[in-house]
Design goal:
Blueprint: H1 14-23, H2 28-51, H3 60-76, H4 86-101
């Protein structure tokens, strides 16, 4: 059960957090930038494995968070959920990525 309804909310589970997470990602450009960043993270991992150049893995937070934070600060105009809920937010990034890939949610947001 949540104790509040703001960004300071303490969530009892990821299931409880995910609707809040999606609400923080209503802007289509923000969602698209998250989606691109997630693809780039997978690309960096694949490149590191393929070339056995493990130092490439240092680029994961740059491409993952870089794209996401541009989406939040310039388009969504809010603070990334990762600042208050880092683990749930990271899980949310990948669940939203999967939900977009499977058509469960749209890149268009609301």
């Amino acid at each position: 059960m949540t104790t509040q309804t703001s960004a300071n909310t303490q969530f009892a589970s990821f299931k409880e957090f995910y609707p809040f997470y999606l609400n923080e990602h209503k802007d289509s450009t923000c969602r698209t930038l998250h989606f691109i960043g997630s693809w780039l993270v997978l690309g960096v991992i694949a490149l590191a494995i393929f070339t056995a150049t493990w130092s490439y893995l240092w680029f994961i937070p740059v491409v993952g968070y870089g794209f996401a934070w541009v989406g939040h600060f310039f388009f969504e105009k809010n603070r990334p959920a990762t600042f208050k809920h880092p683990i749930y937010s990271l899980i949310g990034d990948w669940v939203m990525f999967k939900d977009i890939l499977t058509g469960k949610i749209s890149l268009k947001g609301e």
